[in-house]
Design goal:
Layout (H helix, E strand, L loop, with lengths): L7 E2 L1 H16 L7 E5 L5 E5 L2 E4 L5 E6 L13 E8 L9 E4 L3 E5 L2 E2 L1 E2 L15 H18 L5 E6 L3 H5 L4 H4 L1 E2 L1 E2 L7 E2 L4 H17 L4 E5 L2 H11 L6 E3 L4 H10 L4 E6 L1 H8 L14 H10 L4 H7 L5 H10 L3 H19 L3 E6 L5 E4 L1
Parallel strand pairs: 8-11, 9-13, 15-16, 15-17, 17-18
Antiparallel strand pairs: 1-14, 2-3, 4-5, 5-6, 6-11, 7-8, 10-12, 18-19
Helix pairs in contact: 1-2, 5-7, 7-12, 8-12
Length: 365
């Protein structure tokens, strides 16, 4: 029997745990062996602390060592450090963003800053993504309530050695300078394994066929899956989370005897499908924004619009520019090309659904 792969925790979850511990220490709490924080799904997880100690100048420091489980993550084993200090009587520190009335969140050593558009975080802000920000804010709020803390607190997230680790990522290309991004959408790292993924996809299709279904929903992630499931009111048995295994999943659907496919994806994955890239994970080819613009040229988009798109930093920025310019027909053109690639690969009729970051189906071809 194959070994079950072990899940781990994201840098965002580790940062939230370290932040709560640092604020508890700042408020005078003792202990420091572990801390429990809320997760986006409503669950609670306890983290062991690596460090829990008072520093100079009224600063308290706590840290968590990231355990990514069996995922080949470059930050696995990294120490995620948080320091906390009261803002009263101090100037607003650099490299920070306000999260509510009580918290200023800062990027410390090894955590990058966003210097280009097209990312989920605004230019000039710490490269700490939206869900980790919410997790940190919730964890800090809990600490202040539990310890009876008052006032505005500055929490700084650092990753010792983060600048060196960042060279192994695409951060520099995307405009994240000075270190890593603090990432995560659920707090949990699901291990990446080709065998595990393809076995799961196959099993999902087996279940769908056993349930008598002749159509399957293939999605790149939970957000796109949920959007199409709600739109079509499909049974759970008809869903197969394919992740980045586009080519495999399309061919597997044909081999399982399905008569049609519903394919749901967000924009970057849709662009890769339109480009005919069979494996959409960044490891198998980072999507260069310039290549996406070249795709538009191949699809017959006029030169004037191509010039408008020149210099985009990410696929996300490309999409945002097209929408801002009112050129949704170009977005639809990309979706139609993605649909055509899927139909050629599977040899089956495919309905393609583009899902936005809010979980809404914005195109259906």
């Amino acid at each position: 029997m194959a070994k079950r792969l072990r899940s781990g925790y994201t840098t965002g979850a580790c940062a939230a745990a370290a932040a709560k511990a640092a604020v508890l220490g700042l408020c005078g709490e003792v202990g420091g062996e572990s801390v429990t924080i809320p997760f986006p799904d409503g669950s609670r997880v306890t983290f062991a602390l690596c460090r829990f100690q008072a520093e100079a100048d009224g600063v308290f420091l706590a840290s968590v060592v990231k355990d990514a489980g069996d995922d080949p993550d470059v930050t696995n084993g990294a120490e995620i450090v948080a320091t906390a200090v009261w803002l009263a009587g101090k100037e607003r520190p650099p490299r920070c963003v306000e999260l509510g009335e009580q918290l200023l969140l800062c990027a410390g050593q090894g955590v990058g800053m966003v210097t280009k558009p097209g990312l989920p975080v605004a230019m000039g802000e710490p490269a700490i993504n939206p869900v980790p920000r919410r997790m940190i804010a919730a964890a800090v709020a809990e600490a202040l309530v539990e310890a009876g803390g008052r006032g505005r607190v500055v929490v700084t997230i650092s990753v010792p050695g983060g600048e060196a680790l960042a060279t192994k990522t695409l951060n520099a290309r995307l405009g994240i300078k000075g270190g890593l991004s603090i990432l995560g959408t659920t707090g949990i790292v699901r291990p990446v394994s080709a065998e595990a993924w393809t076995a799961t996809i196959t099993a999902s299709m087996d279940v769908a066929r056993a349930a008598g279904l002749d159509s399957i929903v293939l999605s790149t992630g939970r957000t796109s899956e949920r959007a199409v499931q709600e739109l079509l009111s499909l049974p759970e048995e008809g869903l197969a989370m394919m992740g980045d295994y586009l080519d495999f999943s399309l061919k597997a659907a044909a081999a399982h005897g399905f008569k049609s496919i519903h394919l749901a994806a967000m924009w970057a994955k849709a662009v890769k499908a339109a480009m005919g890239i069979p494996q959409t994970h960044v490891r198998h080819g980072a999507l260069e924004a310039e290549e996406a613009v070249q795709l538009l040229a191949r699809l017959g988009v006029e030169d004037a619009l191509l010039k408008e798109m020149a210099g985009v930093n990410t696929a996300r920025e490309l999409y945002e520019r097209l929408v801002t310019l009112g050129r949704r027909e170009v977005v639809r053109l990309v979706c139609t090309e993605a649909k055509a690639f899927a139909e050629r690969t599977a040899g089956l009729p495919v309905e393609f659904y583009l899902v936005d970051s809010q979980g809404r189906v914005v195109e259906h071809v």
